[in-house]
Design goal:
The two termini are about 20 Å apart. This protein folds into two domains: about 220 residues, no CATH class; about 300 residues, Beta-galactosidase, Chain A, domain 5. The longest helix is centred in the last third of the chain and has 26 residues. The protein is elongated, with a radius of gyration of 30 Å. The strands form two sheets. Strands 1, 2, 3, 4, 5, 6, 10, 13, 16, 17 and 18 form an eleven-stranded mixed sheet that branches. An eight-stranded antiparallel sheet has the order 7-8-9-19-15-14-11-12. It is built from 14 helices and 19 strands. By secondary structure, it is of the alpha+beta class.
Length: about 550
């Protein structure tokens, strides 16, 4: 197989793969915004509207009660209004509504929106007119009073702040009705994005309280998606049996998800960040999804509801859960719960991408610079495949050397393809050329290169990480397009060292255009990924140039 043609096919296949992965995000179902007049009318006439942008009817996003229909929502929940409680720790700023104890905002203090505004923090959990992302929880009971995320709680403070020298901060919300008191407590820990939630039921009534807890994550579709770099945004569920399963927004619209589970977790993912409810290892839950497509914006909920417990009169019962809201840092996710590190989604090449990430992290700890770590990792990968690459480049160099003789054979035999092929095979045998020698090594290395691509794309530490001079954020495109231009130049040099295609003007023109196409294409890629490709191309040029010179000089192994 002609090596130039293989290179062309591989390049086009790589571009096609990226574009195909983005296809569904670009052309799948989109939330349709109703006219402004309709939104305003809904806002004025719907007393169940909790905040701007989230028109909803109480109960439409509540989980079912085991084997029984949902009870009517208490009348006071239809018109209740809460207030916003502010929670400040060393890692986050959170806003929690006393209506339901719903977490409506979480800002990550170590992750600015951009480098130009270091004091404007990324708001992962949010509640805006056209985009919502909420953390909800509550209790369900068929016969006993139980607060849902529409019930009004009370708090003793409007602001809770973690003081210096204190490692935990507890934020309690209290609800009571008919002798039943529920204390929902969020417990924040210094230096961590993992918090604990306790829902304590105090039964001061004359009869048993029987009920279960539920926890859910609710969000709308993202307003913007990358046109070139697709990363999954949506729900994921995990337990020991099914392992890791995605539940996309489209899946939720088509059919509700239901799964009986022991332990495990549910999560909402987006690029670099996630939120996840984590069950106790022995806790039995019903994992479920709810799609609310009749509101604006459309919302999609992933949740889990526990089995019921019984709390006798005069006794207490407690439901415990953990909630993670923060960045996808592999090492921390591995500590929290089995499988949670899979939310760093490397796809089918996880077995390749994950070790590459470990090596990348090692080089970063060694150098303190993610750009230098990328260069060292690329150099290491190139060294590992040196001998395999050498066979490919030797084959290409020999093919290049006999190029004029192949052209003479084509002129001699014209359209007699059988004679031409026989003469070519005789020439290959005489010159000790394996026609496939340049193809197979490249094909073997391709999964590694793609795995490295995903390792770089999914590494949150590259977000706003500086390299040198003009590159101050490896997760965004090169502002001056220097790296994409260097990559285009390196591709041109690489082509010059490869065998020239014989009498194939269309292929030749495509090969000439490829560096320009790739330079434009990679101008929109994160600079960390382009740095990897430039480094790889430079190393390829160096190795291929040395081998070509050796073959041209008549040196032969």
């Amino acid at each position: 197989m002609n090596n130039s043609r293989l290179f062309l096919y591989a390049a086009l296949a790589f571009i096609g793969l990226l574009l195909w992965e983005q296809w569904q995000a670009d052309y799948g179902p989109k939330p349709v915004q109703p006219p402004v007049e309709q939104q305003q009318s809904t806002s004025q006439n719907n007393p169940a509207k909790t905040t701007a942008g989230q028109a909803q009817t109480s109960g439409t996003d509540l989980p079912e009660i085991s084997a029984q229909p949902n009870p009517a929502t208490p009348a006071d929940e239809q018109t209740a209004e809460g207030k916003i409680i502010t929670v400040i720790t060393d890692e986050i700023e959170a806003k929690i509504d006393t209506l339901g104890g719903v977490i409506k905002s979480v800002k990550l203090k170590k992750f600015p929106v951009d480098l130009e505004h270091p004091d404007v923090y990324l708001e992962l959990i949010h509640n805006e007119p056209n985009s919502v992302y909420l953390v909800q929880s509550g209790l369900r009971s068929s016969a006993s009073p139980a607060p849902t995320h529409y019930s009004l709680y009370q708090t003793s403070q409007d602001v809770y702040q973690m003081e210096a020298g204190v490692d935990t901060l507890k934020v309690p919300f209290v609800w009571q009705q008919d002798g039943i008191q529920v204390i929902k407590t969020y417990e924040f820990t210094r230096g961590d994005y993992l918090l604990k939630m306790h829902q304590q039921v105090v039964n001061n009534s004359a009869s048993d309280w029987v009920g279960s807890q539920y926890r859910q994550l609710q969000r709308s579709r993202p307003l913007e998606t990358s046109k070139l770099l697709y990363t999954y945004t949506g729900a994921v569920v995990y337990n020991d049996e099914i392992k890791y399963e995605k539940v996309s927004f489209d899946d939720m619209e088509e059919q509700s998800f239901k799964l009986e589970s022991t332990g495990g977790w549910i999560a909402m993912l987006q690029h670099y960040f996630l939120s996840a409810w984590i069950a106790k290892p022995d806790e039995k839950n019903l994992m479920y999804s709810i799609a609310n497509t009749q509101r604006f914006p459309k919302t999609y909920t992933i949740g889990m509801r526990s089995d019921s417990i019984t709390v006798a009169p005069g006794a207490q019962g407690t439901f415990d859960s953990e909630l993670f809201v923060g960045p996808k840092i592999v090492e921390r996710l591995e500590e929290i719960s089995p499988g949670l590190e899979l939310t760093v989604d490397y796809g089918v090449l996880t077995f390749i991408s994950k070790p590459l990430y470990w090596i990348l992290d090692f080089f970063y700890n060694l150098t303190g610079n993610w750009g230098v770590a990328i260069i060292l990792l690329t150099l290491l990968v190139k060294a590992v495949f040196y001998k395999l690459s050498e066979k490919s480049y030797v084959s290409m160099a020999r093919m290049r050397k006999v190029g004029p003789r192949l052209k003479t054979l084509k002129e001699r035999y014209g359209d007699d393809r059988a004679a031409m092929n026989k003469a070519m095979m005789d020439l290959y045998k005489t010159e000790k050329i394996n026609p496939l020698g340049g193809c197979l090594p490249m094909l073997v290395q391709m999964p590694v290169f793609i795995g490295l691509y995903w390792a770089l794309l999914e590494t949150v530490s590259l977000r706003q990480a500086p390299f040198i001079l003009w590159i101050q954020d490896l997760s965004v495109p090169d502002p001056y397009f220097i790296l994409p231009i260097l990559m285009g130049i390196s591709m041109i040099i690489t082509q010059k060292l490869q065998p020239t295609p014989m009498a194939d003007p269309i292929q030749a023109k495509m090969m000439m255009a490829l560096p320009v196409v790739f330079s434009v294409f990679f101008a929109f890629f994160p600079s960390g990924l382009v740095l990897y490709w430039v480094t790889n191309n430079v190393l390829t040029i160096a190795q291929q140039w040395v081998i070509t010179k050796r073959i041209d000089a008549g040196e032969d192994k």
